[in-house]
Amino acid sequence: MKPKLAVLKFASCDGCQLQLLNAEDELLTLAQVVDFAYFPEARSRAERGPYDITLVEGSISTPEDARRIVKVREHSRYLVTIGACAVAGGIQALRNWADIDDDKLDNYPARKCILAPNTSTPISELFRVNFEVSGCPVDKHQLLGVIRSLLSGTRPALPSYSVCMECKGRGPACVVVARGEVCLGPVTRAGCGAICPSMSRGCYGCFGPCDDPNMSAFTALLRHLGLSSEEIVRQLRGINGYLRPLRETTDAIEAAKP
Ligand code: SF4
Ligand code: SF4
């Protein structure tokens, strides 16, 4: 019997699931070695768990989400979070620095039905996940590599170093040095192929922080480029802004304001 694969979503745009569906050259091979047991985005037949590998997209944003993800964990041998929403809380985690009160929900005609709590939570804050695949969206080759590793019983390996390493390998002029523009590459995890710098624009950090980013040196660089404290906070509080190194840095900057 083939291992069972489940793919499901919480608060998200579906872009990371689409990366798997876009792996057209590899999907038939994958379907030969796994049973797509639960994948509502791709097929109507749904098999009950337990599942060998569960890919989870999206952040935990409602009480129902919080109940459901616990059941998903119980029914999954390997639970892998995919994409910035699941790994970091996503862009919707910006509300973790704000209050969602009734006034802000006035635009909704049936606001009593809105169950949104004040937070958007990375899944790893709730319990241990087996692996995280960063990106907004994830890179399909990385995602397929992780599935392949888990099926073969080896630990997946993804880059721990920064986008600058990839960027230097590809060879475009550094946008910081050449044009004095902001680029989050020095503190962002590699894996995208330095796609933004290779198109002459700064990295905006969609793969989240690399291992052990030097945040104090990086914020000093941003100040050297002329950014104010508010602008630095805005740069760092993006898609992955709720992840610890970025969150602690922006919280410290705001706490230091006179
Ligand atoms: S990480 Fe980005 S692409 Fe993936 S579901 Fe969230 S918003 Fe969409
Ligand atoms: S352009 Fe960005 S990613 Fe490339 S070397 Fe410069 S700072 Fe690093």
Description:
- With 258 residues, this protein is α/β, with parallel strands linked by helices.
- 35% of the residues lie in helices and 10% in strands.
- The chain contains 10 helices and 5 strands; from the N terminus they run βααββαβαβαααααα.
- It has a 5-stranded parallel sheet with strand order 2-1-3-4-5, with helices on both faces.
- Helix 9 (229-236) packs antiparallel against helix 10.
- The radius of gyration is 20 Å and the shape is globular.
- The mean pLDDT is 92.
- It binds iron/sulfur cluster (2 copies).
- The site of one iron/sulfur cluster has 11 residues, from helix 1 and helix 4.
Helix/strand order: EHHEEHEHEHHHHHH
Amino- and carboxy-terminal Cα gap: 64 Å
Q: What's the mean pLDDT score? A: 92
Spans of at least 5 consecutive residues whose pLDDT stays below 50 are none
Please report the total strand number as a whole number: 5
Oligomer state equals single chain
The major beta sheet can be summarized as: 5 strands, parallel
**Strand fraction band?**
5-15%
* Strand adjacency order, main sheet: 2-1-3-4-5
Helix content: 25-40%
Bound molecules: iron/sulfur cluster
Could you say which overall geometry the principal axes of the C-alpha atoms support?
globular
Alpha plus pi helix count: 10
